[in-house]
Each structure stands twice: as structure tokens, then as C-alpha cells.
Write a structure and sequence with these properties.
Blueprint: E1 9-13, H1 14-22, H2 34-44, E2 53-59, E3 76-81, H3 84-94, E4 101-104, H4 108-116, E5 120-122, H5 124-129, E6 132-133, E7 136-137
Parallel strand pairs: 1-2, 1-4, 2-3, 4-5
Antiparallel strand pairs: 6-7
């Protein structure tokens, strides 16, 4: 049995994950669209740890029509920030238990900053692999 704290909060660098794992071979102009964001949010709802809280952070202003009608009780939350990287690092810095956080990004600078503050870092493909849909793995 491990003495490491269990990860309960996942901070997802939204566009980075879309680029690194879901649409790396597709048309880059499509990354920023609502359907792409919604696909990532939909996958995250099937994350293998049902107790985990998931924050998906996208760069930019919130679209005029929300992607989703989720309320604060839903375990998957979508955030729009001027800088997803800065939002994620600030969240890690302000956490009383950064060891219970996992940052999902392929950005080395963000990963290094999160690790330095005590958070775990997961690769985008590893996170997506843990998001099983009713029809099978993502």
C-alpha cells in the first residue's frame, strides 16, 4: 500500500490535451471549436475514478453560449481563462494539498511548475486512456 495521497482533483490543460491526444493528426483549425471542447468534456465525464473532481481549462473568453449546462455539483467543470497555464499553476500554488492534484498537460513548463509545487503530472494520452466511454475505451 502506498503512502502517497490519492489524487482527487485533476486540472486539465484543455487545448493542450486536444492537440496532444485527440486531434494531433487533424485539421488544426478545428481545435478551438465548441464540438472539440465538448468531446473532451464528454470523455472526462467517463474518467475511471468516479470520485475525482475534474477542471478543464481552456484559453480565452467564455463563449456567449455555454458549452454545457453543468452546475457546480457536476464533477467535470469547464473554465475559460486568459491563460489556462497560469490558471492551473495558480490553483496548484493555492492548494493546501498539492500532492492530491494532478495536472494533465504536455507543456513542459507547466508540468515543471506544477511538479515544483508538489502536484502530480500526467500526460494527456494517459488521462484520455482512463476515460472509458459506454462503447469502450476512448
Amino acid at each position: 500500500m502506498s503512502d502517497a495521497p490519492e489524487t482527487r482533483e485533476w486540472l486539465i490543460d484543455g487545448f493542450n490535451v486536444l492537440h496532444a491526444s485527440l486531434f494531433s493528426d487533424g485539421d488544426r483549425s478545428e481545435w478551438w471549436t465548441a464540438p472539440r471542447r465538448e468531446r473532451l468534456v464528454g470523455l472526462a465525464r467517463h474518467f475511471s475514478d468516479p470520485a475525482a473532481r475534474i477542471w478543464i481549462v481552456f484559453d480565452g473568453p467564455r463563449p456567449s453560449a455555454p458549452d454545457d449546462d453543468a452546475d457546480a455539483q457536476e464533477r467535470v467543470q469547464v473554465v475559460f481563462a486568459d491563460s489556462a497555464d497560469d490558471w492551473i499553476v495558480k490553483r496548484v500554488r493555492s492548494s493546501e494539498e498539492p500532492g492530491r492534484l494532478a495536472v494533465v498537460t504536455g507543456d513542459r513548463q507547466v508540468a515543471d511548475r506544477a511538479r515544483h509545487r508538489g502536484a502530480r503530472v500526467a500526460a494527456p494520452r494517459d488521462f484520455i486512456a482512463r476515460c472509458a466511454t459506454p462503447d469502450g475505451p476512448a
